[in-house]
């Protein structure tokens, strides 16, 4: 013990482990992975006790269980691992542009133009997590984000009204870069029973990425903003504008950029 030295590399070591544990716990908080983790912990405890008390057969069985442990962990936590990797693989170009007042206005007007027509819609706003892998399920396009464009996509008679549109920010505000995109669905238990697949798709994508999703309900005629796997309250246009502004400016994490969004000098 006397020869033990605590150096800068130990501080870095402990800090990195603490950060990894913190993000892991944050990632699995409130998910079924917590129950699975408790189950795994119980198996480990039983194995340790079998070793201490010399229970040969139990130790043998659990020893074989642990030889396949890594495979079991990957299978059990595949959803969480996928979500973590997608979040780590952030899009380095996405945060290069500022959401302008025009983008916020256009998003809000587009969503409520669907409400006024009694149509449903899903508008995904890409943030740091790249969503290009989802484009394959839909149709790539390059159109300005405007109420008439969004209406022409989500009109129930239009061939591309099913699925979601994806909006990317650019120097002029934002562009619709894909339509008719299929999103991953959240677990059926993630939402109250009166919400259907449109809302489940919004929650599903926001569980595995940092995208913001505006859901316009065809049935109820209300608008929700979905972020980090949580479906917020129904919002009016002012509330939606405020919520988008908050979420997009917190993503940029730069005070000065909110000036651009509000348009105030
Ligand atoms: N995986 C998915 N990805 C993207 N969009 C989807 C997905 N699944 C369903 N949708 C969209 O949701 C529509 C069906 O919505 P549904 O009525 O089942 O859900 P809902 O949540 O009750 O919505 P609403 O309140 O608008 O009725 C489909 O026509 C399709 O456009």
UniProtKB/TrEMBL annotation:
Q: Which superkingdom does the taxonomy of this entry point to? A: Bacteria
**Is Membrane among the key words of this record?**
yes
Which GO terms are recorded in the biological process aspect for this UniProt protein? Answer: cAMP biosynthetic process
Q: Which UniProt keywords apply?
A: ATP-binding, Cell membrane, Membrane, Nucleotide-binding, Nucleotidyltransferase, Transferase, Transmembrane, Transmembrane helix
Primary enzyme class: transferase
Please list every transmembrane segment annotated in the UniProt record, as residue ranges: 6-25, 37-54, 60-77
| Span of domain DAC | 78-237
Catalytic activity, reaction form: 2 ATP = 3',3'-c-di-AMP + 2 diphosphate
UniProt cross-references to InterPro entries, sorted A to Z: C-di-AMP_synthase, CdaA, CdaA_N, DisA, DNA_integrity_DisA_N_sf, DNA_integrity_scan_DisA_N
Q: Which family does it belong to?
A: Belongs to the adenylate cyclase family. DacA/CdaA subfamily.
Subunit info here reads: Probably a homodimer.
The name on file for this protein is Diadenylate cyclase
Q: Which organism is it from?
A: Mariprofundus micogutta
């Amino acid at each position: 013990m006397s020869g033990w030295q605590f150096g800068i590399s130990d501080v870095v070591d402990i800090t990195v482990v603490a950060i990894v544990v913190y993000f892991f716990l944050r990632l699995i908080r409130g998910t079924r992975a917590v129950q699975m983790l408790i189950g795994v912990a119980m198996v480990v405890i039983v194995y340790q006790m079998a070793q201490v008390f010399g229970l040969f057969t139990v130790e043998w069985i659990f020893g074989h269980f642990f030889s396949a442990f890594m495979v079991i962990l990957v299978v059990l936590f595949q959803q969480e691992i996928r979500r973590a990797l997608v979040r780590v693989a952030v899009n380095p170009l996405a945060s290069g542009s500022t959401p302008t007042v025009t983008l916020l206005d256009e998003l809000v007007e587009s969503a409520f133009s669907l409400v006024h027509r009694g149509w449903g819609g899903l508008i995904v706003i890409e943030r740091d997590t790249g969503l290009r892998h989802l484009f394959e399920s839909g149709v790539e396009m390059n159109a300005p984000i405007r109420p008439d464009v969004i209406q022409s996509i989500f009109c129930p008679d239009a061939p591309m009204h099913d699925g979601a549109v994806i909006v990317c920010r650019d120097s002029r505000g934002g562009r619709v870069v894909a339509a008719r995109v299929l999103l991953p669905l959240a677990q059926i238990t993630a939402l109250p029973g009166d919400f259907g697949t449109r809302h489940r798709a919004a929650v599903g994508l926001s569980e595995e990425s940092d995208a913001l999703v505006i859901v316009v309900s065809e049935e109820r005629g209300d608008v929700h903003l979905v972020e980090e796997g949580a479906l917020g309250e129904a919002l009016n246009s002012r509330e939606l504008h405020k919520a988008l502004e908050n979420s997009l400016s917190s993503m940029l994490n730069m005070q000065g950029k909110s000036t651009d969004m509000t348009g105030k000098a």
